[in-house]
Specification:
By secondary structure, the protein is mainly α. It is built from 18 helices and three strands.
Length: about 425
Amino acid sequence: MKQQSFTELMESYNDALAENGLSVTGRLGKMQRSAVIVHRHEALGKEKLDDEVIADYIREISERQNAGEIGEDHANNMRRETERFVQFVKTGETSLSNPLLGARTLLLPEFQKIVDGFLKSGSAQIGIGGKATSPNTRNDMRWVAHKYFEWLAEQGFTNLRAVGAGQVQKFMLHCSETMAMGSVHNIRLFMMKLYAYLYESGLSQSSFAALLSFKVNRGKKIPETQSADELATMLEAIDRTTGEGKRAYAVMLLGIVLGLRACDVVALKLTNVDWVNGEIKILQAKTAISVVLPLTKDVGEALSDYILNARPQSDSEQIFLRLRGPHIGLKSAVTIGEIYGSCCKAAGLPHSKRFHTLRRSLGTSMLSSGSPVTTVAQVLGHAEVDSTKKYIAVDKEHLKMCALPFDGIKPKGGARK
């Protein structure tokens, strides 16, 4: 296989997965695990895949499993996806063996019929407040349903006739032992939807709503952001005399100025840009909500510079294309993350942060400058204002104003000397 940079290699791998029928959601997990391997090589100064680095990574997976840090299923998935990526790099094949393995295994016919019915039902189609659920949310529901029915099959069940509260409890316990609490929280929510459908359809004697109503403490981290100085340093470090630099500069401004998600940057089409009225109109991939954003002068100039002076000739409707032939649209949000990481690295900034950091930085900056939460929610295209309120957590200056003094508070038993 021709020597490629890691960025090019990731693009080729994503294309290969797409050619073998994997959806964007199906590819995302595989690309994320491959990115971990690539980042380890880059941290060690390696320019190509190294067998010793791979062997150390495999050993670390086993050590983490033995120490109880990760479950057996998760460890097996990590090993399998490492093996798949290494196989692709060494053989250069675009037709990967078992491309669907790990993304979605085949279920027993009766279970598969139930899953298909569930995804078409109102329980899966309608979300909070009567709004339609997004495609990403339905994909997550499909994943949870498959995990549950795969687990039931492993326990020896071929139908739901003997499945009751005990099995639901054991499955949730299994998830809590093998997954992060954030995942357990989502699984609990989607299991409630699944069993609401099963109960309404007469396939279960109960919806188990009370059983699945427990609270999952996910633990919340303060989201990472970048300062205005860091963002300026990153933009200044981009070499805009090259086609790669022009593409990177336009991509970064879409995140910094407009707060677009990586998945929406990848999907951005020429027809989404209304040059006459100075607007960018998109349908968000995550929420399926349409937003109209202003085409600011700096973003417009960066996009036109790339489109007119650097974008390869192509029939693709997507704005951002691969640097090398075939000149087709970028396939994955992971590629946007790689571009972001390269820009941070060139500027001497930590490049472990995700492209989503730019979106968080914009939201936090707007709130800090006094913009109402409702305005920020509209700009970021949030379906609910609650999604925007988390950005307040990083507005340190305004949070200081909320602090209460201890004057007048006397400890019990008197002051200690």
